[in-house]
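Technical annex B. To support the medicinal chemistry partners, we prepared a structural model of the target in complex with magnesium ion, based solely on the information shown next.
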Amino acid sequence: MKYRIRFVIACLINIMLVTIVHSISLEVIDQASVYIKHVIKTQKNVISFIADKRGDSYLIKQNNKKKNGVFSLNSQFKMVRELFGSLVVQYLGIKGHRVCLIPAGMPYPGKQYAALLATLHSIVPGSSLSKSYKRLYRNVFIKQWSLGRGRKLKNCGLSLEVIHSMAMHSMLPDIVALDTYIGNNDRSRSNLFEHNNILYVIDMDCSLSYNLAYLACCQLITLKNNNCLNPPELAALKHYRYALERYVKKCRIENLRALFDNACAQAGFIEGGVFAQGLHLVHKHRQILEENYQSVLELIEVLRSFEDDYSVQNALPYALHKI
Ligand SMILES: Nc1ncnc2c1ncn2[C@@H]1O[C@H](COP(=O)(O)OP(=O)(O)O)[C@@H](O)[C@H]1O
Ligand SMILES: [Mg+2]
């Protein structure tokens, strides 16, 4: 009985969360007048840009990566990660695209493979930093690489280069903190848009890739000994900590779990769902979510002590000078 009540409460919270968070739905487009503007293929995805006669534009994204000639469960789970990441973005009030899911088996204008999952995205304004003519944006590098493929620790996670870039725009610490918070290792310049000096995030399908908060802890411990950060970088790091503290308060672990479970359920990655054979992917990514969250709590402590140590180290030469 106790469990049943708990289950009902959890479901109610889930429904409330999703109603609050969802701002686009499959009804946003006027299906009678919709037309496909153009289609692009990236390395892993096929993306159709659609519009209707009212002038509203959206895009449909599908992962078209195959393994041995068939679409893999991993490719389908990418859309769960896209939805999860975007729900967190929206929950935290960060500027970025809004996403909803188009279920497997449902045809939709611009959906290339009706039998598979797809995501419907709102279009963000402006252009990506990779296409920006402004020199400032050409030098931004905030991708937090995972370890592996022969990469050195110094180039992964919250590297010196990422901290350096974070200082270039007041919105970047929040965005870097978001990626750390949800383990998204794919924030290249093409996945960050700019319009009137406001930054917008897109492409969240690499959320829950890796425990990036743990990597950030490792980086900070190394950086502590090198004393190599300048004042703007230290200020950006402080803003990064403030952002993490806000995220932990606003979107707590229960909320993250609910958003993740909801994304899995909508896509059919549940017992008895269309992708029930992919439950191992649910477990794998849920574990990353749990571990990354625990590491975020440690990271906040590491950042605090980092700031304290840095201010002591920088005060030392001054104190010695006085003696
Ligand atoms: N919400 C969006 N608003 C505007 N353009 C977008 C949006 N989403 C994707 N695009 C465009 O499509 C490209 C590929 O989309 P993206 O989601 O990044 O796919 P991939 O995961 O293959 O990199 C982006 O680099 C961008 O130019
Ligand atoms: Mg991309």
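Notes passed to the chemistry partners:
The longest strand covers residues 35-41.
The radius of gyration is 21 Å.
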